[in-house]
Structures are given as structure tokens and as C-alpha cells.
Amino acid sequence: MAALDTTRTTFGSYGLVGRIGATFNAWVSAIVEWNDARVTRNALATLTDRELDDIGMCRGDIDDVAQSGRAF
After folding, report:
1. pLDDT along the chain (72 residues), means of 10
2. HSE of 18 in the Cβ direction (CA atoms, 13 Å)?
3. How many angstroms separate the Cα of 48 from the Cα of each of 40, 58, 59?
4. Is residue 18 within 8 Å of residue 36, measured between CB atoms?
5. How far apart are CA 5 and CA 62, in angstroms?
6. What is the DSSP letter of 47?
């Protein structure tokens, strides 16, 4: 899973530069979350029904787990 440090202010915290930095940070965070969900969905989709059953899931649960970012 990717990590993005949002605790440091690298673009300034006030004014136009701060707003641009916050917008850029929001875009990057959205892309990272989308990619994590995509990777999770692809990894779970490669498992067999038996393997999914072993971890307490079925095929219908894959999208929910990928979107929420956590297991049941």
C-alpha cells in the first residue's frame, strides 16, 4: 500500500500557494487511493473461489473490500 505524508506543508500554508498545494495534494491522494483499490481488486480477482472462501469472502465482496480499503 502506498503512503503519502500529508503532515508537512511543502507549498506554504496560506494564500494562493497553499491552496494550490492543497489541491495538488488532494489530486495525488485520490490517485493513490484509486490505484490501491485497483491493485487490491486485481489481486483478489486472481484468487479461486476456494481461496476466497478460505478467507471468508465471495466474488461479490471484492468491490466492497477494494473500495473500503479494509477486510470484513
Report:
1. 63 75 93 93 95 93 82 53
2. 6
3. 15, 10, 9
4. no
5. 28
6. S
